[in-house]
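Case study 2.
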Amino acid sequence: MIAETVCSAVAVAGLGIAAVTAYRKRFLSAARIAAYSLVPLGLVMTGVVEWLADTAFSPTAWAGFVVLGCAWALFATTRAVERRRGGGRGTRKERKAAARAGRSDAVAPAASAPSLGPAAARPASRPTSTARGTDSGDDFSDIEAILKKHGI
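Prediction:
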């Protein structure tokens, strides 16, 4: 009974603060305050507050929470063990075979080859620091090939 009274008082106080805020022409803040202040009133009207009050003083309810906590701990532990073992998809041979089959089909055969055109045929050697200063136009040929490929 007292919880319902407190929640109703909080809701009325919140609506009063929202009215003062709206009077000061801060309508967005006033609407947000009104929304927050109506939550406790809605909880009282739906019976959630009474249910929570009955649950808080019930040993059976607390025992139920303990059982739920144990179930959650078992789920988490088995999931951690399953991840550590490698997914639990069967024997080790089956997992390796599935990994090999998954790797071969994951990428198209020509997907690993670069599609830069004639610039890709050159070797990928880096010029030394002395050669860099003499032939700076050659350094940008790869970039030019990429830009031409994209029509830029």
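DSSP finds seven helices and no strands in the chain.
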